[in-house]
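Field: COMPLEX_INPUT
Field: COMPONENT_COUNT = two
Field: RESIDUE_TOTAL = 699
Field: MODE = joint
Values follow.
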Amino acid sequence: MLDIRNLHVKIADEDKQILNGLTLKVHRGEVAAIMGPNGSGKSTLSYVIAGKPDYEVTDGEVLLDGVNILEMAPDARAAAGLFLAFQYPMEIPGVATMTFLKAAMNAQRKQRGQAELTTPDFIKRVNKAAELLGIPKDMLRRPLNVGFSGGEKKRMEILQMTLLEPKMSIMDETDSGLDIDALKIVAEGVNARRDPAHAFLVITHYQRLLDYIKPDTVHVMSRGQIVKTGGAELALELEANGYRDYQSAA
Amino acid sequence: MSAKITPMRSAAESALIERFPALKAALPGLASAREDAFATFAAAGLPTRRVEAWKYTDLRAAMREAAPLAIRPNAAEIAVALKGHSPLAGQGAVTLSFVNGYHVATKGGPPNGVSITPLAEALTGGHPLLSKIGALKLAQGDLALSLNTAFMTDGAIIHVAEDANVEGPIALRFVTSGATAVATAARVLMVVEAGATVMLVESHEGQGALAHQPNTAFEIIAGDKSVVHHVRLGLNSTGAVALSTLTADLGAETSLTSVNVALTGAVTRHQVFARFSGGNARAQINGATLLSSTQHADSTLVVEHAAEPGGESRELFRTIVDDEAAGVFQGKIIVQPHAQKTDGRMASNAVLLSEGAAMYNKPELEIFADDVACAHGATCGALDDELLFYLMSRGITKAEAEALMIESFVGAAIDFIDHEPIRDILHGLVQDWLQARAARLNAGALTVS
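Field: COMPLEX_OUTPUT
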């Protein structure tokens, strides 16, 4: 599903190289985790896949179902089925969450040549997903993420993921700033979408999230490369031993 | 060697000076106030950039010709003027319509506790509140207001009785219309007695592209513990050089909310003079301005805290500038020596959407008391790239994401309006503006390809 080949990335306008020939595959139906120390390039990887303009890809490609998405604008990538749950979701004062959700869902439908959702259909979908994630209705009427706690913002990201139905979801440190209850709800939101048609790339510092979202594969990232790949047991090993071994190996 | 430089009179200045004696004889009432105000204007002339209060708006250059003062329209002219749809139609419990500065119709009776007298009637027949016109010292000497005082034709005197809780807004609709450009000078005085609550809504609508020169002034005198909501909508003709002034004299423990939404007009200037005359008053003064093409819009604000405790003032001005347009914000908070405990916060934020757009921010604090909290902030920049990326990562196109961000940005100033239907109408006008922008961008893209 997601095929990253020899990806080299630097910060635009600077000489700072962040990704150094990263290669990674995530298959349909797979939940892959990326773990790594601070500064290893995990968030950069997620931003580059989603199309953030601050970076320059100097080499390599990112294929989504065989199509190189690097030349596509972020909105086109989203319409192609990609979703990034942000580590720090943005606030939009003055725009009600419902307005934003409808704009996003219909924008993607439009890009895919589908008809816009009717208002009753839209509301039904939102209510169903909100209930699953324990999001109260008054939150949906408030401006997007304004005054939301860290946990509420993350839950809102999962709500968006649920409604937008991406085939490939990237979770960028979704566990940061979450208490155990919020973590469980977020994990349930992900697990509810686990099936052979969907894939996930879960980026995290800690093994804790992976207690709730069991990964099929764990990749260790250091200095802009994948330095080790293994099964779920690799996460436990990292939790016990830290990243020391891999930082020197890279 | 020093010599006083007396610039040559411009055509507009000469015309106004030539015209005044005949008009003074024809216009009703307040002859000496008119003369004094005109003398202020005649001594100074139309303001240029050399006048600090007009540093970024050269009225002398913008008003090359003085359009003739409009005469009272006839029935046919009134019908044409009022034919168009007013965005705020139906919102007033009572709606007064004005054409070219003259009161022509009233729809609905005044709500309980409110009495309304057309100004022309008051000027001719006398009115106990006439002496309150132009009474706020803070605004005296201002050139736009002086011109309005000298030439005021009609308008209204609104009285709100003590403790009246006025149901529904008092709406005033001003339409400038005609085959040729005209100048108008409407004046409204609203005296709100102690403990009353009222909402005043003014809309200024101009048809077509003519260079009309409306100059309106609203004066609010708010009695102790009164609550006043004020909304102004500026939809002048696209060629208009439009001046507007709001003065507010706030009694003890009053609350004033004023939101000005400015959309059209070639050169517009909205001024607010607010004086905290009584202790512990509160004012929220906002502006939302959206500019395109070569528009120039100036928001100028003077807030004077002159009582102890000094009260709380909040100013939030949001400006969107596209194309070759220019926005101006001048805000001054004055804290008099005895106005201790004043809490003033003023913010002007602008977003520039194009290379050619410009914004001039001039915030000032003049603080003569030592126990106050005053702050001002002025920002000016492009739309936030991070937020744009966030929205686009959800599949929203760049154009739509920008529109959402612009709506959110100016909406923050509009959202202080409690009256939900009016707030929604103003949001709708912002969306109309954004659609027009999208159409321009699409047309531009087509032209390029």
